[in-house]
Structure formats: structure tokens, C-alpha cells
Batch of 3 targets.
Target 1
Amino acid sequence: MNFEDRLKPVADEVDATIELYFDKDPDTLEDAMRYAVLGGKKLRAFLVVESCALHGVPYKEALKAAAAIECIHAYSLVHDDLPCMDDDDVRRGKPTVHRAWDEATAVLAGDALQSLAFVILGGLDLPSDRVLSAVIGLATDAGKDGMVLGQARDIAAESANDPLSLDAITALQAQKTGALIKWAATAGPSLAGDDIGPLEAYAGALGLAFQIADDILDEIGDEAKTGKRLHKDADAGKATFVSHFGLKGAQAKARSLVAQANDALCVYGAQADGLRAAANFVISREH
Amino acid sequence: MNFEDRLKPVADEVDATIELYFDKDPDTLEDAMRYAVLGGKKLRAFLVVESCALHGVPYKEALKAAAAIECIHAYSLVHDDLPCMDDDDVRRGKPTVHRAWDEATAVLAGDALQSLAFVILGGLDLPSDRVLSAVIGLATDAGKDGMVLGQARDIAAESANDPLSLDAITALQAQKTGALIKWAATAGPSLAGDDIGPLEAYAGALGLAFQIADDILDEIGDEAKTGKRLHKDADAGKATFVSHFGLKGAQAKARSLVAQANDALCVYGAQADGLRAAANFVISREH
């Protein structure tokens, strides 16, 4: 089965879960939030659902945890697209939120999506202490020591005189993209009170492979397929994994990281085939 | 004792609590966050601390809950001040975050302050189920059904053809300002597992009085004392409590609401004098 055919039903169920938190008669704010969060690949949601299945977390609760991280991811995209940040007009093949509405609505919809993530995650019907750990973990990984820090450093890099070193890019990406991927992939053992070690190792390699693949897509991707503006980094003269390793070197590095990610799953045997497929997808995707 | 002399030590201890979550060697993002959240009256923090004292919540935990709501309040001010929102240059007598740094830093600092609120609140050393309820409550009151909704409606009102009715303004303010004030004033009984009824009634009246007082300040306040731009509503031709009630009528309404708020505290006797002083302060403050 094509991996995207595997993502689709999970994405649909996560969207249906998110819809439950909206009014039947939504206003502009809720319209903009739904526009931003519904649809999309929902790769992070898939990681949550697979990780939860490996550790016996009930599917319904897994869907809520998946919905929560997708709210965080969606809010970060809405804010990243703002004119004062990446200034993008297109996302997932549609006008960005500030283009479809206006900047104020985009700021507020992003803000409210972040809040909604914690409403949804806080409501998991699992032991309170584990849910609380998941809340603290998500807030930490999303905030000033994780995703937002990575984003701030990424923006700072654009106006810096010297291109970032490979170590600096790796650290930045571990924050910007890696932190949420780690939270998603380790959600199952975290919520079950099990050892997160193997999935943490998987997520570390996967997160880096994901970002290298993003840099490759930015270089050689097709805007019609990605549904977003490309060649931004090269145009901005920014250091990326591709500028450091070269295109072929970056591709080889991404393949090696995926092999490493999949090796980390050996303790799970064939049960982790979904996560293996996700890792393979990350470096072969065209969007 | 002057009420502001009573706020100061609480504000200082809340600031010290927040500082614990920052690195000793902060970067630009953390500098901007600290600039936004430290200082200020910290009235919401005072409500949390007093409410917790009434219900036996340990002071150290009360300070953390107070720190959390001040992070939410500070993030909302940073985003509200953005050019695409209220476009303000001055806040608490200092340049706003996007003036002191830039818009991208203001968006990100606000985003990370919201995350930090949930890191801090999630870490309360109290029974997990109660902490989790507090997290869900704060996320709900801050988000699309509370503060952010009120803000979105407030912005929509500025470009509407017809001024808002009194009922619409009252509902909007219950979301924009009232929701967080209610969370703050009921934090004690919520975290202790006690009845929130009396403090919820206090907070409902106080929140409305607070907003009427804000409208009065916007009309007759002194910018040197408030440390922010005034007369914005009148300049924008916006409906306010003052435009509906007239200045004297608004002042009388605010006084009557404060009396109502204080009546709701009768079950606590003299122990609630701090909250009574807070209510009296709200309608007599000059900033």
C-alpha cells in the first residue's frame, strides 16, 4: 500500500476528532482555525497513533493526543507564514490564513490553536499524572526551548553575516522540527508509563532526516506538488544541509539516518512497520 | 496601606518565580519574553495568591499558578500591541516588544510565553487531577471560547458599521478580560477541590467593573500614568461602556459592581480583605 493511502484514514479521523471541539455554527475565528488545522498530511498525528498502538494506549485517546500536536503544528505554520516571518502566500496549495483573511485573524487563530492543543491534550482519559507529563512535555517542546527557539534562530540566521555551521543547523533543526517529532513518536510509551528509549532514538534520527529532506525539496521540489513556495533558502543565501553536504551527499545522509531510525525500532519487530514506512516516506515524499 | 504597596511584594515574588524558568544566559527570544512578562501591576497574580490563601493552597504553588496566568496575560498584550492589531508603541511606559525588537520577535515571544504558562502550571506540586483541571481551564479561558474570542470580536467591532449594543459589549468583555480574571480569582478553590461559587460570583462582577474602569481610563486617564496610549476608543468611534452609560453613569455602574463583588466574599469574612482591596483598587486606579 502506498504510504499516503495509509496516512489518509488517520488524518481523517484526527480531523473528525478536532471538529468535535468546534461549534456547529462557527465564527470567523473558528473558521480560520479550522481552515488552518484540517487537511494536510498529518504525519505527526500518524507517529502519535502508531506509537500509542505499540504501547496499548486506547485508539480514541491516541487520536486526541494526535489532534493536540497537529493544533500546535498548524499554529506554528500560520504564524511562520506571516509577513513579518516567512511572508508566504500559499500553504498546502491554498492561500495562507493571513491571505484568506487578514494578519490579525492569522495571529489570533494561531494563538487559539495553541490553547486548543492543551484543552484537547489535557482531556485525555488516562491517568492524570501521565496526561500532565504529556502536557508539560508538549509545552516545553513547543516553546522557548524547542520549536519557537528553533524558529527564532532560523529567522536570525537569515540576517546573519556568516552562514550557520553544520552543528548550528543541526541544533536549530532539532529544536524547530525535531522537538515536536520526538514528542509525537514517544507519545505512546510516555502515556503508558513505559520506556521511551527506542522511540526517542527513532525520533532523533527521523527528525533530522525530515529536515534534510525538506532542504532537498526546497532545492529540487515541485511547487505544484508541495503546495508551498520553494527555493526560499537558496534565494536567501541561507546555509542548509544541501549547501553543506551537496545534493547527493544530503540524500545519502538522509538515507543513512532513516536506516538508523528503523534500526532503533528492532525491539518492536513487525509491529513497528507503520513507523518504518513513515521514515521511508519522509525521505521519498514530494511534498 | 496603599493597595499598590500590597501588590508590589506579590509582583516581585511572581517575577522571581518566572525568572527560575529562564536561562542564566538568555538569547534574544528569552530577553524579549522577560521584557514582556516582568514588571507590571500583576493584578491577576494577586487574585491567584489571595484566592489560594483562602483555600489553603501552599504559597509556593500559588506563586506558580500566578506566574502562569501572568505569562498568558503578557503574551496577549504583546500580540495585541502588534501593528496588525492595536498597533501600539508604548506599554507600561516602555516601547512595546515589536518596537524594542521587531514584529517577528514579538510574535515568537508571545507564542513562547503562552507555552511557558502551561509548563509552569503543569508543574504545580499538587494532586495531578486538580492541576490538570486548572490546565484545561486556563487553556479554555485563554482560547477560542475566552480571551482570544473576545479579542477577535473587539477587532471586528472596530470595522463594523453599527456600534455594539450594551449586551454585545458585556459579552465581549466577559470573554476578553473576564475569563482570565475568573480563572485567577477561582484558582484557590479549584486547586483545593473546593466550591468555586463565591469567588466565581466575585470574579464575574469584578471582571466587568475592571473593563468599565478601563473604558473610563481610556476617556479621562493620563497617559503619563497609564504608560499606554489612551483615547483610542473615542478616536475610533467605538461603542464602550462610557458611550452607553455616559461618564457618570459608567462610574456609578462600576461602583455598584464592586459592591456586588465584595458582597460575594461575605462567606470568607475578614480573610478576604485582600480581594476587597483589589476590587476597590480596580475602579480607583489611575493606570
Target 2
Amino acid sequence: MARDSQGARRGGRRGRQERTDEPGPIAPPYLTRQIPTFDILSEEGVARIEEESENLLCEIGIEFRDHPETLEYFRKAGATVEGVLVKFERGMCREIIQNSAPTTFQQHARNPERHVMIGGDAMVFSPLYGAPFVRDLDGERRYATIDDFNNFIRLSHQTPTMHHTGGTICEPTDIPVSKRHLDMVYGHIRHSDKPFMGAVTSGWQAQDTMDMTRMVFGAETFDSQCCVLGMINPTSPLVYDKDALESLHVYAANGQGTVVTPFVIAGASGPVTPASMLAQLFAEGMAGMALSQLIRPGSPTIFGINSMGLNMRTGAPVRFDESWKCVLGCGQLSRRLGVPFRCGGASTNSKIPDAQAGYESALYLNYTVQSGVNFLIHAAGSLELGLCISYEKFLLDCEMLGAISLMADGIDTSDSAFALADYAVTGPGGNFLAAEHTLARYKTAFFQSELFDSLSFEQWRDAGSNDAPARANLDVQTQLANFEEPAIDPGLDEALLDFIKTRKAVLPDSYV
Amino acid sequence: MARDSQGARRGGRRGRQERTDEPGPIAPPYLTRQIPTFDILSEEGVARIEEESENLLCEIGIEFRDHPETLEYFRKAGATVEGVLVKFERGMCREIIQNSAPTTFQQHARNPERHVMIGGDAMVFSPLYGAPFVRDLDGERRYATIDDFNNFIRLSHQTPTMHHTGGTICEPTDIPVSKRHLDMVYGHIRHSDKPFMGAVTSGWQAQDTMDMTRMVFGAETFDSQCCVLGMINPTSPLVYDKDALESLHVYAANGQGTVVTPFVIAGASGPVTPASMLAQLFAEGMAGMALSQLIRPGSPTIFGINSMGLNMRTGAPVRFDESWKCVLGCGQLSRRLGVPFRCGGASTNSKIPDAQAGYESALYLNYTVQSGVNFLIHAAGSLELGLCISYEKFLLDCEMLGAISLMADGIDTSDSAFALADYAVTGPGGNFLAAEHTLARYKTAFFQSELFDSLSFEQWRDAGSNDAPARANLDVQTQLANFEEPAIDPGLDEALLDFIKTRKAVLPDSYV
């Protein structure tokens, strides 16, 4: 079943409802933003934040713990190393990055029609990353399993608005921590042919990812192209620990993509004002990206961010205006530096896919798109600020991505967009339903949604008064029941399974 | 109870939770936008749409039906009048408007601390307008009554994010159509001291509004200041009917504000492309605004718009990317013309305050703010694209307005926003909870929400697993139970009631 077929264009449901059309090329593998970015900061404001980032890098410094190799790279590059603390001359990280990091690069997919561009005006959407819990189709909240993980790969694969299957969508808690990375990488490869992310929990798990990815793409492609991305998280404020550094080294040394993503919680792992959060996020990001370029100049690297505010009454993290502002501001910082930008996504504090989930997810998602995001993580499925993934919300978020994707097309003001000749026929007070201009366009003019109800009240009531999650629930069931696995070379599949078996035989069982 | 007191600042709940603080000045009566507008069109794109609007005004023309006085105004101004069809030379309407219409004006409120500015960077939020149905606190959908109407005035009065009580929030269907305008205007005056809108269903109902408003503000203020706004809707495409023209004349002749608001449904009352919808909206709006200036040069007039797309499968109107684009484009057209802009708001197709309602409302609301809206109608309460008002959704929308309001503050990049000195104390890996920079700011640093849950999963579960509407339901009950009517001069109150009694005695009972 070619769900992701021609009719798909951008809409979540539009793709599906037209799936009976004649076969055609697959949906665009990524979006091209045709609207401006929303630049919340003035030029002076951006410069002031850049200056403060340099102050942090120079005067406070960053600790790189338990990884002497990193210290050696920085020492050779001219930084001041005091124990594990590294201080950078003003402008040094920026210069290293700008000397060799690509502004735009291509990530390969198993299916060449699904290669994505990352950078510039290109936008790539990928699902939630890292949820330990799942809210399942029975409304139960429980620990996620490998079956859930693979189901979300399948849903990501057949949703046209999802361009990438992401990484640790949810944690397969039924498999030992020491082994589950193998099943996850295999899941990405087997249940989709879209691009994906690999393991970063340690250096050797990153290396397993490299080995499996190399088997998929072949040595020649793997050694010269970006075939997998890895998420590199510093331990804010101003620290990189051993696991992050080991993983960064493995990905960069192999020429694979690093998504260097500091995470600042205002008032905890950073200060409370958006300007100071921005300065810290950028300083931490620049240090990690510079390291990737010292390890292998020209290796793809992405500036990623995550940030939260706090509800000062409860102490709980929240995503309101501070986070929105950080997303928009970091987009500007990223463009001035000249690297691709990662942020996201459909994030909410809500425990269930209710109205709050809708408000919060839509706004955060929209600001990420307006920030000029190139690689959007957490684009679908998130509840509890990412602690829990919901099947129902996954499809609702995808539907919203469809509408936002059309927004990113901008407004066509070429002559054919206007209808003056039809007014001459229709006249004042007329109806445009049968106008030539309408008839030529009505099939593709609008975002068509089924999950987002637009029936009359009476029609909706007579159809069972379902709310949006109830409609999504039915749709998830249908999609999973009808899923057809993408083709894979049987030899490759066997080789991957052999590799996993061999590795699992020597790895200990560890659940922590 | 001073809900709308100092602590309020911008937040919906922030205002309320700090209401036990010492009394202070009321919340800002309107917002000042400190972020850029989101300009979706290029300069050339805006110019092309302006050109097409002039083509419509000049080559197709606009019909002004059953109102010879209007035709006479336009004939004198130099337009070509053929029957009821008026054709305008290119640039004529623009010139009339730019010669005398104010770019910014003040609307007076009964409480002088609540006067609002309309235009420039000022933003004024007002509730839903015109719902025949209400979804009440028992979840029942029924026809709205005058009690509902007055309840929504009360909620608007005490919500800091609502600056204006709007107009026909919902239809008091338990009062004859011929008389209900009197009760509505009285409700606005009696249950709030914020600014409001009056009746526009006919010329004589508009005149009753003038008479009552003059009683409130006194002849001197009423004759020289804007004390009430009226919504003027052409009958798209390209027609103004008698009631709209009569009302426009009454408001403009009295120097009161006209909110000239064309309403285009793509593929029905206009063409299907955003560019052509924009051209029609602007042409229709300019004709009405020009008329206001011919009637009384300098009378306040606002360019308003409403637009919908269509679900081509069901034929139902929807608000996705086409409507979002119209909002943003019309903001640009409005600024180039130099008049205040009205659009809005928290709009959704959903029948209930579910996830769909959240997604759709948040996005539409956000684009209106980013369009540079000056007067935002439908900011809270809307379901079924405005056919139904919901108590629960009213407060949820207000909460979202609080967060979006803080967004509009932009990012402070002055030196005090940064925390370099604290990093020297905290160091890499430290915690900012007790940092000086944090302690000095944490009370006001974040948007504080109660309706939008940010508890842990376990806390939320133990508190009853309520969804957002359930929390809002309780809050509506509390707010209405504790409502204190704003003070009013007893003589004025009596005079208004006498006026209403006298008018009702001579008016027929008509329910259609």
C-alpha cells in the first residue's frame, strides 16, 4: 500500500485519503521553507548574545570530563586547558566551525528517494526522542517496549509529513540497556527506508551503530557520506561528560552527523532570562561543534537546543514564552554561525492528548518552524514534556504538521493566483463555487483533514460525538493492521541479524 | 475582589493567584507589541495584491444596495455610479482613507484606567462575537441566553488578558431580536467597565447604542472621542447591504469606530487562492473605510477581516493555512495603508474543547498576534468556528492569551539580562536555583499557569486525572460565584434602565 504516494504532497490525511489514486512518486522527502524566518531578536540583540557566549567560553570555560583525548584536541588547537576545564579565546570556536563545518549536507536513506537535505531552507521532521513511557491504545500508561518502538517506526514510515524516523523514539525497556541499541538500529533499518539516528549511550554502542550502518550503505558510501546522525548532549551548565564525548568522537571520526544539543532548564541548569539561556546554549553548542571539526574537519554537525522554563509555584519545568523565545533566538544564532539548526517540537506538559496538549504542542511546533529549523526532533507523539509517547497524539501531531507544512509554502502572487476574469462573470454578490478559477484548483487548494473534524454539529453528533483522540485511535489501529514492511535485501537482513546475535552473545545483560 | 490587580501583569492565572497581594494599579489596559510582525509577503507581493484590489474596485466595482445616501457620497467624491454599482478610479479609496483616517486612536472605557489604544504596536483582545449556541458547564449545547451573555461579560471583565468586552459575544435568544440590543449594551456597561462594541443589526439599533453610550460618557466626551465600536460586514463578494450601510452611517456620523470586516469563504464568497482572497478582502475593506471618511473625515475606522477555506470533501469551512495566510497578509496591507487592523482569534472547527480545539485555536491566535493585529476579536470561547461559545474554552483560551502576551514582550538583551558573575560562583556543573540572578527574578520570570497542568504524572493522577476542560469548569464556577459587579453611578444606572424600558415599550416583539 503506497500511503506515501503522489497525492500525499504535505497533508497527513491528504496522503492517505488519495491513496487509491494511480501510483506516483513518493511524497517530497523533506520540506523547503518558502516563508521568512521569524526573527525575534534585532541584529544588535543577536550580537550581544554572541558576545556573552564568547564571555562564557573565555572567562568561565567548559569542563570536558574523563576524556583526555578531547583535552588534547583543544590544547593543540590553542585553547587553555586547566585540569578538565578548557577556556577558549574569543572567536576561537566560531572560527574552527566556520573553517570546515558544512552549512548544508545530505543525509542518505536506505531508499535513495528519501535522502534528506539538512540546512538552508530545508526542513526535516522526525518523531519524539527518548520516552520511557507509552500511552497505549487502551489509554494505559506503561513502560514502552520494543513492539511500541517498532510500531512508531512503522507509523513514521508511512506518514508523509514525517521525513525521518528519528532515534530512540521510546525506550524498549523489555530489552537490556546494554543490548537494546542493536534492536533499535535494526528497527529503523527494517521497518522503514527513511533516514535515522543511532545510539549515543556510550562509545562502543555508537561504534555498533557505525558497524550496522556501514553494512546497510556499503563502505564506500558510508565513508564518504552522512548515513546516520547521533544526538550529543552536554551536561549543562558548561560540562561534557565521558559518554557524550566518546559518542561525539565515534560519529565525527566516521564522518557521521553530530546533533550537538545543550539542554537548559531555566533556574536549574542555567539562568532564568531568555537572553542568558541563549548565551549558554550557544556557548555549549559551539564548543561541541568545534570539537567535531577538530576530530574530522568537514564532518556534518548540527546546532541543537532544548530549553524549559519553570513553574515557580510547583518547581515543574514548563514550555511557555521562555522556551519559544530560545527556539527563535537560537535559529538566528545558528544562521549567523552558518550551521544547520535542530530544535522541536510538539511538546506539552499534559498527561493526555487533551486541549492543553493541543495548545502547547501547536505553538511550540509553530515557533520551531518559524525559527528556520532544519532538523525537527520531537515533531510527533510527545506527552509529559517527552516522558511519554502517545499513539493517538502521534497522528494528531502529524496532522498538524501537514497544515503547518502548507503554511511554509507561503503565498503565491503570480498572475495565475488572481481571478479577475471570474469576477467579471460572477459579479458582485455571486458565488465562486463554479468559477473557472475555483474548478481548476479545488482539488489541491486546501489542507484536507479527517482527524480534524469539520462536520456540522449534527453530523458530528450523529457520527458518535468522537473527540480527536478517539478518531486518531481508530486510525492508528487501521494503519498498523495494514502496514506493509518496506522491501529489504534478504542478504543484508540476515547479515544484520547475525551481527546482532554475535554482539548480544558477548554483551552482559544490564537493565540500568 | 481585585482579580485584575497588580500581580496580574499578563498571565491569566498569574493575575488571579496573586490577588491576595496588596492592592495596586490594574493590569495594563492593552498590550504593546515588542516583537516584529511576521511578514509572509515580500514587498512586491504586497504591491501585487494592492494592484489587484484596485483592479477589482475599478473594473468590477462594488454594489451598495438600498441606500441612496451612500451612492450620493461616492458620486460627489468622483466615483462612477451605475445603478447601485460603484466603480472607483485606481487609488481613489486609498487616498480618501489616507487623507483623514487615524492610524491610531483611543477608545474610552467607563473606567478611565481601562481606555485602550487601537493601532500601531498596541494590541487589544476581546471575546468571541456572535455565537447563537452555548456549551454550558453541564456539557449541554443549547441556545444562548442573556444570562450566558452577562456571564461572559463578567468573565471578560475579570480576566486580565481580556482588554475589551467585545460586542454580541453570544446571542441572547431568550429576548426578541428587536429588543435584545438594548440588554446587550446595558450588559456591557453594567457588568464591566472595560470598553465595548454596540449594535449594528439596523440603523435604528445602532442609534439606540449611540444614545445609551452618550448617557454613559456624557455629550462632550461622546461627541469628541471614540466611546464605542461597531462591526460593519459587507456581503461578500463586493456587496454592502442596507443594514450594514445604515449602521456604518450612524457610527461614522457620530465619530464612533467602524470595524469594517469583509468575510471571504474561499470557493464560495470569493476565489480559492490566498492571494485572490487577500485582494478581495482589501478591496471590500477599503470601500467601506473610504465611506466612513466621506461621512465624517477623521472618524475612527479599522480594517477587519474574516476568511475561511473549505474542506473539499465535505464542503465545510475550515481554518488552515489559507486563513492563516490571509491574516498575515492583511496585516501587511493594513500597515501599508495606515489603518488599525482587526482579525482573530481562537478559532476551531471542533465541537468540544478537545485536542483539535487546542491545536487550531493556538495556531490561529498566534498568527493573528504575529500579523500585528490591533483589535483581536474572537480571542476566547469559540467552538464550531464561532457558532458556539464554551465556558470552559473561554478560560483555556484566556490562559493561552496570557502566554502569548508574554511572548509579545520579546527578549531583553540589556546587560542586566545576563548572568556572567553568577557563572563565576556556580561554575561548570553547578545549579542556578540559588544564584543571585535567579533569586532576583524568579517571582516574575515565568508564565504561571494553573489551568495548564505542569504537575508530575503521579501528582496529576492523584489529583483526579482531570483534563484541561475539567479544570476550567471548576474555575468558571468559582469566578462567577465570587464575581463582584463593578461600581456604577446609581443615577446613570437608573437612566439607562429607564431608556431601555421606554424603548422596549414602543418596539414590537420579533424573534427573527
Target 3
Amino acid sequence: MAKVAVVFHSGYGHTKKQAEAVLAGAQKVDANAQLVAIDAEGNLSDEQWAILHAADALIFGSPTYMGTVSWQFKKFADASSKPWFTQMWKDKIAAGFTNSATMNGDKLSTLHYLFTLSMQHSMIWVGTGLMPSNKKSAERNDVNFVGSFAGAMAQSPSDSSPEEGPLPGDLETARLFGERVAQVAAKFKG
Amino acid sequence: MAKVAVVFHSGYGHTKKQAEAVLAGAQKVDANAQLVAIDAEGNLSDEQWAILHAADALIFGSPTYMGTVSWQFKKFADASSKPWFTQMWKDKIAAGFTNSATMNGDKLSTLHYLFTLSMQHSMIWVGTGLMPSNKKSAERNDVNFVGSFAGAMAQSPSDSSPEEGPLPGDLETARLFGERVAQVAAKFKG
Amino acid sequence: MAKVAVVFHSGYGHTKKQAEAVLAGAQKVDANAQLVAIDAEGNLSDEQWAILHAADALIFGSPTYMGTVSWQFKKFADASSKPWFTQMWKDKIAAGFTNSATMNGDKLSTLHYLFTLSMQHSMIWVGTGLMPSNKKSAERNDVNFVGSFAGAMAQSPSDSSPEEGPLPGDLETARLFGERVAQVAAKFKG
Amino acid sequence: MAKVAVVFHSGYGHTKKQAEAVLAGAQKVDANAQLVAIDAEGNLSDEQWAILHAADALIFGSPTYMGTVSWQFKKFADASSKPWFTQMWKDKIAAGFTNSATMNGDKLSTLHYLFTLSMQHSMIWVGTGLMPSNKKSAERNDVNFVGSFAGAMAQSPSDSSPEEGPLPGDLETARLFGERVAQVAAKFKG
């Protein structure tokens, strides 16, 4: 059984909702998959770090703020230099997701960063595995309407509450993404 | 008077429509701004190269195919190693735009590449200067609904004809972007 | 047994040398690993495409020209839209390498593109898994002196022949990288 | 007279040395160019923010930690959402530099982020304007040996003190870069 941890920061609650959907997807494969929330100061407890070290797959999540991950997520990433020195996370499965207010809004920059972080840790990266919905008949709540391959994206209007956004289609995208990452982790663990 | 050239490749006509909108915007500032179309084999004529060499601003455009510029655009970029060796384009203004079928669809990867190309040429990069439309009340035909800062993005459904797409809002975004680049070029020329 | 194919373009022979080193590394794990060379017009034969379709891991290689892959490599990538439509390469292992004349020289831009391509194909990406040699005592021929995580980099001076460059350290880096990718592919196949 | 501010974070002092070299270059054009240091908690004083708001050019600098800017720099970037909302920095000149221990070490990822940040602010980006030293005869202390176009890079071995690194060539690169950015700012201001 491959263990999955979803490690994320959320500023206002939208990314938390997305993280919960990713978790729900992962739990279809690993019933014990769990959330690891980075706090408002960018810190994790020792117990939380231990969950990450023990996991077979780490799914990174952050809002896109000013063009990449939040500073709190980055503080976590900087603190991961400790396991990096010993390459403790080598060959774990990695993946990433992000939410922001704008359709594009440089969300790909955030996913590129999460990928870059995972490569420094010698992890193995998995994307959405989902084709985009991009025909004339496409609707906003289709799976992968926002249209990302490298990781899962969600879009929540700038004046929406966490209850209002992300929309159902983006949450379903997050679930399918979480399930895929957990499946790849399970297959890789053998 | 700053001279503007819009150098682009279009596979099916959607990016050409976007290029024409960028041109229309640029022409509000430089009445003689012109299109320079890369052909289906990725080539430009000597006359077309001369237009680029004489311009004060080059606006690069390409569809996003398989995650970055089309191979025809890249063939043009590779051929630009000739003016690169002598840094002939140094201090020209640069900017970029792209169209693809998907809302995100890695369009930012294309803009990042166009930026990277311009930096090798020691050009000076200008983005859209447009805030995104990302409130709950946002509509598909708002200016910068697709939501890009580094350059102009348009989205045309995968089964749309060039007549059908890009949509009016994306074309208006392209016009405002072309006008901005030409204004910056004029200001920089002094 | 996981099948590995190294699909690459080389303009002057330096990237070919790097590809051969990647292959040598891969063959320690998959004795039948093979090179698939993109020709000077950016084409592959039907037999070559068949090798790619049958492989469990595709290692992409290209020189960095004007900031990303060569146009010939991009023509191959654009032609891969055919297997993309049916997601024929889904869950294959992917990895990438590049050579250029400059220490940095935007080689990371090339690796980012190869990653982006692989994500559109729903492949699973593996990096070098090699720590950089970056102490005061570091020497040019150390493994991963050029210092890349996302894929293997080599640097060959602009006036070096393919016989002279890449240097032995970069070729050893390429071998270790090829071996790692093949090992991950073997583990993933189970 | 165009006003230049070099806003940076330094963890151990290497990036500070690079920032001082950038400043020295800028001061050849703007004698009053100044440093604005982000503190160890990622904060600026009101007086420091006022310097940024009044400047014509902002040169961003950060070490590359775990693949992009330090969390302290990111905290500053997140706090810049306040001037972003009113686009207070629109049409300022922007540029960026970074130091890390490894030759590549994902430094381009950091520069790409600084570029992305500047584009959200509708700034105008200037790179190094320096050709790389990449011949067989190249030496470590040549200008732009590290070889970057989008912004200035320096490399300081992981076990070097700030006194030992960055090396003289990287500092000269930083000076020429600072001078170029100030010149472009002066030309743009007219």
C-alpha cells in the first residue's frame, strides 16, 4: 500500500477546498491518505514532517500569489533543504496543484516551481493525465476546463468565498488528479 | 516615430486573426506597423528579414502546439542566430502573443519561450499591462478574461474555424496589447 | 524488462555524443535500449515511430538553440500530436537532456519544455537524481558539475568539435542519468 | 534623472555582495541609486516601500533556494500585491539577479519568477545585454562565464564565505548589468 500525503498552504480557504478534493481522490486508492496543512507562518510540526518522510507520494498544493507559490509554502520548501541534503525524499512520487482567481494568472509558473522543487528532491513527477475540455460545446464545469497537464488547476473568482469557489468542475478535476497520483504511487511501489 | 513589426506563424488562421488585431492596435501609434508572416516551411524572405532589422519593436506571435511555439516559428528563431551573433536586435522592444484551443493549455510556456528568445537578443520586454477580468461577474468576452500578464493570450476552441475564433474579447485584448507595445516603443525611442 | 528509447536531434554531433552516453547508461539496465535519431529535416521514419510507441521509457534529447529545443526536435514534438490525441504514450516514463555552448545558456528552458511535452502526453517524469558538485574543491569533470536536477545537461564550448566536447564529466553524468531512467522504468513496469 | 533601487534579500551575505556590485554599476548612471534590503523576516519598512514607489527602475535580487527566490523575498513579493492592485509600479523598468552554489542549480527558475512578478506589475524587463564567454579559451572570471541573458547570475561554492564568493568575474558581470539597467531606465525616462 502506497502512502499519500497532500501538503498544502491555503490563505483564504479556496486551496484548502481543492486540497480536500485531491485527498478524496487519493483516498479511493489509499484509504489513509492525509492532509498536511502548512500554517499561516509557513511552519509544520515535527509530527507533520514525519508524515511527509514516511509517505510514498507527496502532492504539493499552494495558491498562486503574485506569480508563484505563497511565501508560506516557500518557507516550507526552504525548510525542506534538510531532507534534501540527505536526499531523503528520493524516488517518492510528486505532483502539484494550485488555485487562483484568474483563468491563467500564471498558474503554470506555480506548477513549474513545484516540479522544480520535486526535481531537487529527486522525486518522480506525475501530472493530471486528463485531456482538456476545449471544444465549442465545452462548459465551465467540465473536467479540466481550465486545461492543465503538469498539475491540477482551479480557478476561484477574486470576490468568491471558499464556499463558492472553486467550482464543481475544478473540484472533480482535483479528485481525478488525486486518484491518478495515488494509483501511480501504488503501481510504482509494486 | 518607432517602427513596429508583428512577426508570426499561423497554422490554421486563428493566430493570424490574433496577429491582425495586434497590428490594428499597433497602428494606432505607428500607422506603418506591419505584419511579417513566417511561411509554412518556417522561412522568411530577405525583404522580411530587412523589415525586422529596421524595426524598433518586434512583436512575436505563434500558436501553442504541444506546449510551446510551432516548429515553423522555432525555425525562424533558430535562423535569428545570425542577427544574434552581432546582437543586431539589441535594445529593440520585444513582446509576444499566442493562441491555443485550451484555456491554459501551456500558453504561458510559449510566452516564456518568446521572452527567453528576446533576452538572448538583448531586447527589452513589454507585457500586456492589462489587469485580468476575474470577478464573479466576469464574462468570456471581457478584456483579458483569459488572464495573462507576460503577453497576450487568445483561446479558440479546437473545433472552431478561424472565422469563429478567437472570440471578440480576446481580439480586443490583442488590440490593446499591440497599442501598448507600440506606445512603449515610441516612448523608448524618444 | 522495460524498453528504453533515446529520441534526440543533434545539429553538429555534440548532442549525439551525449545521447550515446545516455544510451550506454540505459543499456546497463535494458541491453536492448536504442537510439532514435531525428533527421536534419525534423522527421522520423515509420519504423522509428514504432520504436517509440513500443517503448516503456522515452528519453528526449536536443541541443539548446536560441533558448529551447532545435526546430527539428520541435517538428518531431509537433508530429507527436498524433499519438497525443489518443494518449498513446500515457504512463510511459519520460526524461530529458540537452547540450549547449554556455554554462547556463537557458538550458533549463529546454528541459522545462521537454517536461511540458511529456506532461501533455501524460507521461511520468524522472530527473537526474544526482547531487551537484558545488564545493570549492569542485572540478570541471566532476559528475553534475554543470549542476542540473530536472534532466541532464552538458556544456561544449562554442568552438569545440564533437570529439572535444562534451567533456568526460558531462558524459559520465549522462551515463548515470540514462541508467537511472532505465532503473525507474524497470521498477515502474514491475 | 532616472532613480534606481536594488531591492534584495540575502541569507548569508553572498547575494548582498552581488547586490552591492549591481548597485556600483547603477551608480555610474544614477549617483543616488540605493540598496533596499529585505530583512530576515521578509519585511520592508514604510520608508523602504516609499523608495520603491518613487523609483524609475527596480532591480530584484534573491538567492536561489530550493529552486526559486527565498521565502523572505517571496514574502516581499506577496506584500507587493498592495501596489499591484492599483498598478502603482506600471511602466517602471524591472530586472533581476540571483546567486547560488551550483553552476546552473535552477537559477533560471528564479529569474523566470522575477520576470513573472514584474509582468504582473506591468513593468518593462531588461536583461544582461551581455554575450556569454563560452569558447575553449573561456576562464572562470570572464564576464558572463556563468552565461545568463534574462538577468545576472553569480555562483558561490556551497562552502565559501561571502568574502570568498561570488568570484570577481561574477561581480564584474553584476556591475555591467547594473549599469545597463540604469542606462535603459535613463533612456526610457527621456
